[in-house]
Amino acid sequence: MSGSSAVSGAAPCRFAHYFAICGIDTETGLEPDELAALYQWLEADRQGRDPDAAATGENFEQSPLKRTFKSKVLARYPENVEWNPFDQDAVNMLCMPKGLSFRTQADQRPPQFHSFIITKEDGSRTYGFVNTFYEEVTSPQICSAMQTLYQMHNAQSAAANTPSSSSASSSSSSMDSLASSLDEADPPTCPSSSSRRVGGYDSSRDTLYVSKALCLITPMPFMHACRRFLSQLHRAVTSAAAPPLPLESYVHNILYEVPLPAPGRSLKFHGVYEPIVCQRPGLGELQLADFPLGEAFSLLGVENLVQVFTCTLLEMQILLYSHDYQRLMTAAEAITTLLFPFQWQHVYVPILPASLLHFLDAPVPYLMGLQSKDGADRSKLELPQEANLCFVDIDNHYIELPEDFPQFPNKAEFIQELSEVLLSYGISANMGAPPRTRTNPGSTPSTPARERKTAALRQLEDDGRNGNLAGEELAVLELLQGNATLERLQALTKRTGVTVARVDALRAGVRAQASEGQGGRTAADEEELRNAKLNVQLREVFASRFTTMFADYEAFVIQSAPDLESWLTNREQMHNFDKASFLSDQPEPYLPFLSHFIETQMFATFIDNKIMSQWEEKEPLLRVFDGRIDKARLYNVRAPSLRSSSYQRCSILKESAQAIEQRLMKIDHTAIHPHLLDMKIGQGKYEQGFFPKLQADVLNTGPTSNKWSHRTATAQRRKDRHRQQTEHLGLDNDLKEKYIQEARSLGKNLRQPKLSDLSPAVIAQTNWKFVEGLLKECRMKTKRMLVEKMGREAVELGHGEANITGLEENTLIASLCDLLERIWSHGLQVKQGKSALWSHLLHYQAREEKLDQQHQAESPVSNVPERRKSDCSVAMPSLRVSLIQDMRHIQSMSEIKTDVGRARAWIRLSLEKKLLSQHLKQLLSRHALAKKLYKRYAFLRSEEEKEQFLFHLLSLNTVDYFCFTSVFTTIMIPYRVVIIPIKKLSNAMTTSNPWVCVSGELGDSGIMQIPKNVLEMTFDVSGCQNLGKLTTVQLGHDNAGLLAKWLVDCVMVRNEITGHTYRFPCGRWLGKGVDDGSLERVLFGELAVPSGEEDSGRGCRTPPLQRSPSQTRRISTTSLSGRGYKPTSAQIQEAIGEAVNNIVKHFHKPEKERGSLTVLLCGESSLVAALEQFFHHGFKSARLFQKTVFVWDFVEKAVAYMESADQMGDLQETAEPLGMTCQSLCRYVNAINSTPRNIGKDGKFQLLVCLGARDRLLPQWLPLLVECPVIPRMYEDAALLRDRTTVNALIGVLETLHDFPVTLEASLVKGIDL
């Protein structure tokens, strides 16, 4: 039953739902914890032995006092609450995550407090608060069982003659080494015991104590109140005098007579010795969060916490690591609380019970807490997957971050503002060791495992935090008071120069408060008030960042469904947030972070909630957030600062703290005092040091009448249910829940692993859910990448433009790399290196190379002929597809330093080559290798899912990616160039010395001489840096010898790493006295579809980036094929409009995504081609004396006329600007004519158009050419150039280019001095 579906009577009004006691069951005696058995089972399974036989063995190697035993829930009151059924397994596991532990009188340990959280399937949460103390064992059976275990242990260690060691230390499985590192022996705690056998037990001499836990289960996280109640209860058990009333009175009171405070109100109720106060925020305020954020900040340091927070927002895997359960809980709750208005959507287990360690294998985002043993070394902690892990070592105040993730916007100013808030409360902000990013595998930092005397001394000695005490100073003081260590500590700190002023101040403050009584307020009250104010101010700073960043999010939400039901059924196909427009509206520095963040599950859920709020009540967090945005709009008309990235500070810090202070100072409601119950006399007899067996009959039912238990009216019930929801409880409509479960990826179903008996069947089922979830995620990601890239579908789904930004593309590819890493690390047998995928590839490589060597040894015959795949394509020998070859390319890149980086580069390269699916299929076809590396439940060993997964990846071959070339811009790439002459028409041989120069978006190769008389001139441009996407090829020769003419069909250039082949069509002569007399040409290329792609499904491609998809190919008028082609005047005008339009569009794209401007100026369907057609229209190009007349001849004649007219003074009368224009045209034409390059007449015309466009002169030159008397001689009457209206229209169109900075590629303007 979901936590919000049943409400009865006083259901949601009660402060606490259950009081439970966990400890040893004297009936069943000592049972070893499931953990040991489970590990033996897993280990046997891994080694192929019969797991069930192995699981029965006992483990005598470890000292019995160090071992853990099964704990039980001994009692719970009431038996059951219908709206929140008691989960016995979960409560037992989380009250005692490691099971029972024993100690003797020699090893004194103070009581420990910790909290936990149980997340249900529907996302609703229940909180637990636990006080654990040691109680003397009175059962003789258990004492003698412990004695027997000791004798066996001593016999075993004598026989093995080795010191006791951890149970699984010899195993190599990553999970087992994880377990053994957690089971490291604790350092001896007291010097007196080191003389005899450490931690020994002798029943005749020692008293045995066992752990017992008192637990309150509540619907809301009132951490401070529960902590104080439980500590007073524990005090009542241990104090010499009996408590004022039987303990049943206090438990009954908190279960049945203390209500939840109403929103915006405070409540006072009574513990055993003193009153306890708690408060609850109002409906418009940030929801309740009672865990001390100040402590989280002081444990980690502000910068570290902001980094962990960023990793959480980006849904990475977060693993918290500490010896103290409460610290794990504080850090986890701090991070998730600060996410407002978003909510963590994935696995959330702040305290991972020892028996659930296999859950670290989960291939999904998670936020988990793992307990470290005192002195255990981080370097020994082998985690199943680390490619995407943020590891947070709370006790040593340092973090390890995943490689290359984007920073939170305005991070420096944000940290500054948080530091100021902390300083105002006396907490220094610059704590925490600087974060470490994973680099090489060897650099895992190890932490010194010193034996420290007390927790406080450890905190002060540890230099990672500059000696600042944690937030719970009071607890620390209690520890220090009356402690001989204190004096030594003071002396030590004075010597080392660490300030403990705050400790002194606190001690003084506590004394002062105790003496004055401050109107009845205790030190604990003051501490709680201070914590509450600090909490709310820190949270406001975070909330204000999101309010600023997402102030306009509503404008981009796409509301497309008529009603809730149709929206829920079509949820997966719906496009409900316009990501492209949203990003284009954001300041540039925010983009790296935002483009990743809007792809997360938490953002998707936030938008889903927004859309659903049309039809039903707003989700509480969303209601508060929207309220804040509306308020910000009232005070601040946000238009001017829309795209500004300047930092806006939080303006409501004072008010938020005052609201809390007023509530805590002025109590709104006081609960009924604890009172005597109707109990049998003498049953709950007081015995110091023992928690009595409580009378169940009085605790299992609440009072029949009190003023708030009768709120059962329907309206009230609805209100209460809503209030319950307000504090975390999710969706209560079954249909909705079902659809949403399916609609959102698997995170929801696995928010919390089922805390139950851990039979192998349960583990298998969990893993099966993971496999299904990974496959679904793969389907969603590939679909999203295709939709984004292909644009067509995206337009129908609400995108305005069919283009994908480079930033979005990069984000999607990064998330695909992350998914592949998670798939490859699921069910891994033995972990090697940080990247599971790269490790698998290396195994494959080693195996294949070994096979190759054997093969060569057996048959030393050379196997060359096999490479000639397609004899028909003489143009370019085909590139051999080889997984190993691609790996070697990556291995030779010195820029990449880590395995994770290599794996990502390899994925990008395979994606760019359209070989990702094929390569992975090949990798996984080696079944023996997969079997050796992966457990049988792993994703990669689920045949059907694996096939589907490869099929989804295959779909990515339908689009072109440049995700390797565009990211690794500094690497060396070999290029192969083939020049193809037109054989029929020319001597394929030429006596002159040809040369070529290849240019791309990132640079050019420089001029390279081509060896003479090579038919297919194939040579490698090696030692050349990555040129990026190729744009132009300059081809020419020196006109030497008799056969100095050359007719070239095209030039082919191939990138030998990515296999991208570009075709640069030419179709013209190079030589004096033929064609336009050009000795060199600049050719413009486009990506060619490799032959033989069609059959492998790699052939479907998106159109190249240069052209918009709708355009048909136009033939250049000057190429051979175009000579007979005469376009109509309407076609010419349309072509000019389209060419200018494409240039305008080019400049409207973000700079990084523009592609090549040169192609738009000079390629096919370019401005030059269109203007060429314009000037050719009606041109009298009859062959006078067998000589073709070119447009350039007309331009030269016009310029000659202007110059002669200028000398004769005809131009003197003309207006001044016109004279200037004349001079500029003459100057440009003469400069082009006097260039040392032999670019031919068409090349010169092209150059004139490009320079005119760059310097904004084209529209001014046109009237001069039109006015020139040369026109009638060279143009027919119907020519477009002689039609005034058309020319004026053309001038208008060309003037639109004046707004843009046209820059020309170096290959175009080489040798022109202007």
UniProtKB/TrEMBL annotation:
Bias type Polar residues, positions: 437-447, 702-715, 1105-1121
Domain of life: Eukaryota
Domain RUN: start-end pairs: 807-969, 1158-1309
Localization, UniProt: Membrane
Record-level Gene Ontology MF annotations: guanyl-nucleotide exchange factor activity; small GTPase binding
Region (Disordered): 160-203, 430-452, 702-726, 1090-1125
Entry protein name: DENN/MADD domain containing 5B
This protein's record includes keyword Repeat: yes
Domain PLAT: from-to ranges: 973-1084
Residue span, UDENN domain: 53-617
Cited PANTHER family: DENN DOMAIN-CONTAINING PROTEIN 5B (PTHR46070:SF3), PINSTRIPE, ISOFORM A (PTHR46070)
GO (cellular component) term, any one: membrane
Lineage, uppermost ranks: Eukaryota, Metazoa, Chordata, Craniata, Vertebrata
Organism: Cyclopterus lumpus (Lumpsucker)
First and last residue of the signal peptide: none
Sequence similarity: Belongs to the RAB6IP1 family.
Keywords associated with the record: Guanine-nucleotide releasing factor, Membrane, Repeat
CDD domains reported for this sequence: PLAT_RAB6IP1, RUN2_DENND5B
Pfam families: dDENN, DENN, PLAT, RUN, uDENN
Main localization category: membrane
Keyword flag Calcium: no
Residue ranges, compositional bias (Low complexity): 160-181
InterPro entries: cDENN_dom, dDENN_dom, DEN5A/B, DENN_C, PLAT/LH2_dom, PLAT/LH2_dom_sf, PLAT_RAB6IP1, RUN2_DENND5B
Gene, per the UniProt record: dennd5b
